[in-house]
Amino acid sequence: MNREELEALAARRRAADGERWHRVSVCCGSGCHSMGAEQVLATLKGEVGAAGLTREVQVHASGCRGLCAAGTLVEVESGPADGAERHLYVGVDPEVAVRIAREHLVDGRPLSEHHADPSDPFFARQQRIVLESAGRIDPEDLESCLAAGAYAALEKAVSEMTPAEVLAEVTASGLRGRGGAGYPTGLKWSTVAKAAGDRKYVICNGDEGDPGAFMDRSVLDGDPHRVLEGMALAGYAVGAEQGYVYVRAEYPLAVKRLKIAIKQAERLQLLGNRIFDSGFNFRVDIRIGAGAFVCGEETALMASVEGKRGSPRPRPPWPAQRGLFGQPTLINNVETLANVPAIVRRGGAWFAGIGTAKSKGTKVFALAGKVRHTGLIEVPMGTTLREIIFEVGGGIPGGRAFKAAQTGGPSGGCIPASHLDLPVDYESLAAVGSIMGSGGLIVMDETSCMVDVARYFMGFCREESCGKCIPCRAGTVQMHELLGKIAAGRGELDDLGRLEELADLLGAASLCGLGQTAPNPVLSTLRHFKDEYLAHIEERRCPAGVCGAGARAEEVRA
Amino acid sequence: MSVVTLTLDGRPVSAREGATLLEVCQESGVALPTLCHLDGLSDVGACRLCLVEVAGQRKLAAACVTQAQEGMEITTGSERLVRYRRQIVELLFAERNHVCAVCVANGHCDLQRLAASLGIDHVRYAYQHPALRLDASHPRFVADHDRCVLCTRCVRVCDEIEGAHTWDVAGRAAGCQVVTDLAAPWGESASCTGCGKCVQVCPTGALFEKEQAAGGMLSKHRDFLTYLKNAREKKEWLR
Ligand SMILES: Cc1cc2nc3c(=O)[nH]c(=O)nc-3n(C[C@H](O)[C@H](O)[C@H](O)COP(=O)(O)O)c2cc1C
Ligand code: SF4
Ligand code: SF4
Ligand code: SF4
Ligand code: SF4
Ligand code: FES
Ligand code: FES
After folding, report:
1. Which residue of A has its CA nearest to B168?
2. Based on CB atoms within 10 Å of each CB, which residue in A56, A171, A517, B234 is the most buried?
3. Among positive and negative, which fits the CA dihedral A430, A436, A440, A445?
4. What value does the mean pLDDT take over residues A65-71?
5. How many whole angstroms from its chain centre is CA A206?
6. What is the pTM (predicted TM-score) of this model?
7. Residues facing A423 on adjacent strands
């Protein structure tokens, strides 16, 4: 495969697509899947077959399109790929699917109902780089991915750029790690590139253990080739010939699609030996995690890939110095790597033009909780929380008042209404006691209790601690019990001091990030919502009516 | 041999390049509490008792796994570090069932010694009272999980010195336990040679020889590892 062949293949597919009357993609992401997307897909295929239009109309499954709350989503694209006419249907069930098939696909009269409005801020406010193709392409069909531009960046890199030039673009882009900590990607790459070692490895971290987060899953099962291409580019830049994608076992669809994608890419020599007839070799293997949150931590992940118990070890040595099998290793998050093809294709300067001074590009968020459009969104860095929640997210249903946004999962914190105009970037979130994290964003209204939220996340860390170091293993137990006691209306004022003292210990003394950040949900709720803790303790009352404390007070009064 | 110089609690000291901060402390006569570390075994940095402050560094460093570097300024006994150490030891007492009066290790126990040296006379955390089993299936040894602090010294000595790798850690979080083979009773372990090394290195009353009454366990031979290593590597048979 060389450039001409790649371009010819993509062009041929685009032309063939353009000749079809319609291309129909049915979202079969996990959200829509749970609402019966498979039946919608089967219905549409059946109807098209019955009408004898299988040549004229193509129906395929796609990954998540983001508006999961309004599933199942079906998009009908008509005309040539550039300048196609698009209709996006929401809330499609088999009955609506029959109407779409008969009225729109056969008779050419789009339905007037079940339409998503493309000018809705949910769409208009988003900017898609990582999710550029997810939801459009058929992830199991390499040609459809090639037609959308897959592997063009890799071809460009290996045929006209040196590894140092690829690295320079990534550095110039200002991209920072999307796995949580926001470490500059270019800097990490250059450390691995400089490290001495007979072999080097690239690892793609797809463990995604934060409760409620599904950004990486959506990228992996909606556009697996983008991640593989990002890994290959990383391998080219740092001098690695072997990559591993670490995916959690709870993502069977992502694993299946990755397997298919790797096989397809190898067949066309987009992965494997002598990629695009260059001297560059890069293979990718999949490793499946067994469902431990801590295995997302880089040193635990590497131990797990080596077949050992997934426990973190002290750093240094950093993975870049001594990582997988003792060799220099580059480990990046799924979303980080998925940004790379666009950066190489369009240039680091282009990417650096998006976002804020220190946080470049876009960020994918999984919107959850008390917000109208729960689902997956991608917005430029620096978009405010208010814009995300009230414009893109459509606001809070039921006319209730916003209370807090939780970002960063068990390592993050709760941001109160007074900070709604905060631009979402790494530094701003940290300044108010939360973190960007990997992109989970849970919206809470007046019916959420902050003590209960803190207790929930501490319970999560208590269960997920690997047990290696004492502050985390035993400290999370004590903090969780104290929070339970307060929630149950049995707390004392001294307990707040005890919580703070334990939080200090965990933050300072734990071995890895899990224990170090486990107190964050407690500290941030204590900082912004101390009155709720005091209501539980002094008045034995849960202001949101969630905890047992309220009920207990009723009993006492009765 | 290259030498680095650093400041330890305000005193200038020199150290061999590549030495850990713990070794520097030991050579300079600065007492640092440890639990998971044992001379002769690899270090895991798990107990966090040996944490020290490094000037200009936001994060604390576990001395047993941190290499001494030129110009480092180390503080080992700040008020904050002492508080953390006490908290860690108190957490250990609350975590499992430590009833010293009826423990074979009473009087010879590293955990007890740590508590005494840190002046701990009561525990502020809620006792968890887990229901744990005691494995007395081995003909000569007993594993009493009530006293285990999960330091993994047994795991490492059995793997690194004896080469049997009988012990490992199973489970996660508070449910972690050291297990023999694939959680089979110790007495049925196919890999255990019965060498007793794990019993010797265990800092508490978790592993002990049979037929010991409360407090009956003689002090364990903590220096035997150095002896073994010297014997093997340098052919020195001195005790
Ligand atoms: C407890 C814990 C869990 C983590 N889980 C993940 C994860 O699921 N996915 C991820 O990409 N990074 C996770 N990380 C961060 C990784 O250790 C690592 O920093 C990251 O994969 C680096 O990639 P990046 O530079 O692209 O962000 C976790 C860290 C900790 C401490
Ligand atoms: S902080 Fe928690 S998860 Fe991390 S090593 Fe310690 S016990 Fe394990
Ligand atoms: S192991 Fe040590 S601290 Fe625990 S009961 Fe025995 S003597 Fe006491
Ligand atoms: S007695 Fe020896 S072989 Fe058996 S578990 Fe202990 S250290 Fe391992
Ligand atoms: S049995 Fe003893 S040596 Fe083994 S982990 Fe427990 S306390 Fe440490
Ligand atoms: S799963 Fe269909 S839109 Fe997210
Ligand atoms: S002795 Fe250093 S962490 Fe245990």
Report:
1. A309
2. A517
3. positive
4. 89
5. 9
6. 0.94
7. A384
